[in-house]
Design goal:
The chain crosses the membrane at residues 66-97, 131-150, 162-179, 252-272, 312-335. 54% of the residues lie in helices and 11% in strands. The chain is mainly α. A two-stranded antiparallel sheet has the order 1-2. Strands 3-4 form a two-stranded antiparallel ribbon. A hairpin with a 4-residue loop joins strand 5 (221-224) and strand 6. Helix 4 (82-105) packs across helix 9 and helix 5 (131-151) crosses helix 9.
């Protein structure tokens, strides 16, 4: 309280933000925050969040800062004990990602808000967010930093092992970059007049008119409600890469998942065998090192960060393995992922008999033009 009887907070000394001040006022007085207050706070944060830069401060996107904050909190919580590490990577991090995903999906642009969560409703356009791609990028960068600053200094990993790990990492990053770089519609749009296109599309049957794009597209092209574009032989929209997977980049996507899974699994193996006491395991004609006991896993910050990064890699490897299994099942069955999901929702529409032609489907997938 000042001399004039006006109330203020210490927050005003750092930022003259009325929306944030009002939110703190309602929280401290045990009053609920309305939807308008939350929107004002988010807009204020996105405008005030800046970093010093040459020529003036630059805005930091809220989704990027949220991804960085999510990774920092997760790695920090996983550095205390095995119990907190398991709870962090099994409960806390998946719950955070699910909550963010629900908040993003609630921004569906539709006149009727009750259509959120409904399936098959025309006119719904899913919002596009860079949070998922930023989270994946920041997570991979953080794991590499932990690996080279905390695991490598133990001087237990040979140059040969590090070279294999870097080969898988570079291959995966290159393939996933090509997925985004080569993403396109996969066909050349027809340049015809409005009067001509409807007649010729109906007569030929090879092309049709998309009412959402308002352009002519091939019969096998489908519309993506997130990209707001039609793609030829569209597989699905990958939110983690913020791009659509179709006939142009689907093979790069599968190769990137395979190399990424190998890199994550091998990196986790190197980290755990470095921090923990390894045990020799005889497998056929070779000997493998597997982590056996970890009594000093949280004895120092270096070892605790290594263990936390390894557990983070296990979680990412699980996500990648699930996505890879989905893609391989679709390749063997000769269908796209969106078609596979649609068939799974309908009773008696998908059978294991579709795997009988698995070799032919794989040949068509990898060797088509």
């Amino acid at each position: 309280m000042n001399e004039d009887g006006e109330r203020s907070h210490v927050l005003l000394a750092f930022c003259n933000c009325d929306a944030i001040d009002e939110a703190f006022e309602r929280l401290f007085t045990l009053q609920s925050l309305e939807r308008g207050n939350v929107k004002k706070v988010i807009d204020t944060l996105s405008d005030r969040l800046r970093i010093p830069w040459c020529g003036g401060a630059k805005k930091v996107p809220l989704d990027l800062s949220g991804a960085v904050l999510c990774v920092i909190i997760t790695v920090f919580l996983g550095c205390f004990s095995w119990t907190l590490t398991v709870v962090t990577y099994v409960v806390i991090l998946p719950a955070m990602l699910y909550s963010v995903h629900r908040c993003i999906r609630k921004k569906v642009t539709h006149e009727n808000p009750t259509t959120y969560g409904a399936k098959g409703i025309r006119g719904v356009k899913y919002p596009r967010s860079r949070f998922y791609f930023a989270w994946v990028t920041v997570s991979l960068a953080s794991l590499l930093i932990i690996y080279y600053t905390q695991v490598i200094p133990h001087v237990k990993i040979s140059l040969y092992e590090n070279f294999i790990f870097m080969v898988f990492t570079c291959l995966s990053c290159t393939c996933l970059y090509l997925v985004r770089a080569t993403s396109c519609a996969g066909f050349e749009p027809q340049n015809k007049g409005v009067d001509e296109e409807c007649e010729e599309v109906i007569e030929s049957g090879a092309w049709r008119f998309c009412g959402k794009c308002e352009t002519q597209v091939p019969r096998q092209a489908t519309h993506c409600r997130t990209c707001d574009t039609c793609y030829l032989l569209r597989d699905h929209h990958c939110i983690w890469l913020d791009t659509c997977i179709n006939c142009v980049n689907d093979r790069w996507f599968v190769i990137g998942l395979i190399c990424g899974l190998c890199a994550l699994c091998y990196g986790v193996h190197l980290s755990l065998t470095t921090v923990c006491h390894p045990q020799h395991l005889d497998v056929y004609f070779t000997t493998l090192l597997v982590p056996h006991r970890c009594p000093d896993a949280f004895a120092s910050l270096q070892s605790s960060l290594s263990v936390s990064g390894a557990c983070y890699g296990i979680l990412l490897a699980t996500f990648v393995a699930v996505a890879l299994v989905q893609q391989l099942v679709c390749v063997l069955s000769g269908v796209r992922l969106r078609e596979y999901r649609r068939r799974r929702e309908l009773p008696n529409q998908f059978s294991c008999c579709s795997f009988r032609n698995g070799f032919r489907n794989c040949f068509v997938f990898w060797w088509r033009r």
